[in-house]
Amino acid sequence: MARRRQIYEGKAKILYEGPEPGTIIQYFKDDATAFNAQKKGTISGKGVLNNRISEHIFTLLNTIGVPNHFIRRLNMREQLVRQVEIVPIEVVVRNVAAGSLSTRLGIEEGEPLPRTLIEYCYKDDALGDPLVAEEHIACFGWASQDEMNDIADMAIRVNDFLCGLFAGIGIRLVDFKLEFGRLWENDYSRLILADEISPDGCRLWDMTTNEKLDKDRFRRDLGGEVEAYQEVARRLGLLREDANEVLDLEQHRRKRGK
Ligand code: TMP
User: Fold this and answer.
1) Cα(201) to centroid of ligand 1, in Å?
2) Three-class secondary structure of residue 40 per DSSP
């Protein structure tokens, strides 16, 4: 098979040209970065788990009418998605104080917030994705007012849905990051949810023990990263017999040279 054209390589994913116009393939790597890529590592098997978890969540979001870029999973590490023009804003939704919010405002980690908080960061690695106000977004034209309204509405819907989904499996959704993209149809564009939703971009705490089941295990050198991601997948019902099934399957495929 001819080598596919690589469009972009990010920190955790590679994007390839898709089989039909307007589609791209997202390949999920095992690479992990933190603190704007100052810390780098590998979490063996992470890509397989994130591909599966993100597929599951985007499929569910589609059924409740949150438009998103997911089309179908292709294999253990790849999914076919719609090509969009990514809005250069990281949308962070918070229910409980943690991470940079706690550091910035001196709020103890784990303190529930009086209301859901949406924050925006400008997507620019060289600047370290700085926190920006809606006024900056309007001033520099990164998104229109209509787009910002759609983003906030969708972010709240996603948060409500995910809070319930995770609460049902004993997990507190502390915070998470979303990205949106423009889908162009002739001269018009509409916003859809893009990127991924996985333990890489969420804080997920066990509801009874407060154990961290997300990338903070890597950021904070807690160890047990892949086990935590597997636990999330297992509770979502994505791993059948035992927690290693997905990874065993991949190793088996590799041995067969597929
Ligand atoms: P923060 O506390 O570091 O600002 O992160 C808030 C949430 O957003 C957390 O769940 C991790 C996620 N996030 C990303 O996925 N990518 C990023 O670049 C950053 C800064 C945060």
Assistant:
1) 6
2) strand
